[in-house]
Amino acid sequence: MNLSDIPVFGQLFNKKVNNPASQQHSYQSPVYDAAAMLKEAAQIHNIHLSLLVAETAIWASPEVHKKLMEENGYGDWFPNTRRYRPGQGEKRGQIIDGVKLDDNSYANQAIKKAVGISRERLIGFEACHIWPDTCYDPRYHTTIANLVLLPRAIAGLSDHDAEVQAALQYRSFELYGWYPVDSPNPSKPDFYPQTWREAEPFTQDVSNALRWRKNSSQPGSSHEGPAPAGPGPNSKTPSDIPTDVPRSSNTSPVGFRIPSAEKLILLERIGRWAQNPRLNVYKIIALVVKAKTGIPREILVQEANRVSVSKNAYGAVGSLLTTKANAYGRVFTDIDGIITIHPDLAEEVARILGMYSLKLAGLLQANSPITYQTDAAALLMALQEDAV
Fold first, then answer.
1. What's the whole-model pTM score?
2. What is the rounded distance in angstroms from the CA atom of residue 384 to the CA atom of residue 292?
3. Alpha carbon of 356 to those of 16, 270, 281, 336, 367: distances in Å?
4. Pick from 165, 321, 188, 138: which is nearest to 247 by CA?
5. Bridge-partner residues for 126, per DSSP?
6. Alpha carbons 364 and 368: distance in angstroms, whole number
7. Which of 32, 182, 280, 337 is deepest in the core (most CB within 10 A)?
8. How many CB atoms are closer than 10 A to CB 305?
9. Starting at the edge strand that comes first in sequence, how are the strands of the sheet with 338-341 ordered?
10. What is the pLDDT of residues 202-259, one digit of tens each?
């Protein structure tokens, strides 16, 4: 007879021993699904995250979408672009079958130009695609009706929260009457915010951005969209890099102050250039002053080629962005591919160019002293005449 055959001993033999070592091998840690946990927490506390999105989302005017649809049928700001897939060996900047591969720079610039709000007034917002995975489709990557600006703190909801996705899609459909052809017609969600932030108005700045964009898309244009994010010779300053820290000793992101001595040298140079408006450098600076809220770098190069005899307009623009060697000096800033006069110089540059332009246009006597006061309307008219 075996001891295990006796009932009392059988219980002992068959009882499982609580062995920590054996448990260590069989224990599986739980899976923490952020989207599921967030959804559960929102339901427990009766919170609708789509309400936050509705109150803070920044949309482009439906008129922008309408004009782009009339132009290319998809509403794209930058046609033939899509996000690259690094897992498939693709690289940012590649061109495959006529489609340029992007990170999110093209989409970011498209929606920010479409809403007509200057970079200085857009703090902490991210460009978000409304329909999942459409960033990989060249038809929809920069479609304005497929893009919205959301606060960075909640931008991820557009990718990971079903309620927010449904609300954004239906709101886009309300505003633009559009949805991807491969997607079902959006239906109103069971919970849908009743109050949404109004779309931005169709301003003159938006109209100018559309015109620049359209001109740059003509045959023979050198326009290739914004510079990609990240390191490299064509890198931009991403919006989440503090602008009070220069990328290098020679660059001039907005917010990085120009030392007083350098500023005086630059203003003296600009004053000399302004005395001869036929100089290519004067014409390039005048184009940026006229643009007021900035001009895409590629379009500035195109316009510089048109109004000047420069053999290297791209190099001339680059020379106005740096202090290196024999460069003109950092009169410009380049943020997200948009060129503006450096904030430390903007007011003085407009006044200097304005007074010389008014003289040349016959609006001042030839012997009138150059001062730092002028009329804005006359300045704009004179700069327009000089650029023709």
1. 0.54
2. 12
3. 96, 11, 15, 31, 11
4. 321
5. 150
6. 6
7. 337
8. 17
9. 295-296, 338-341, 332-335
10. 999 899 888 887 655 433 333 344 544 433 323 333 333 222 323 333 344 444 678 8
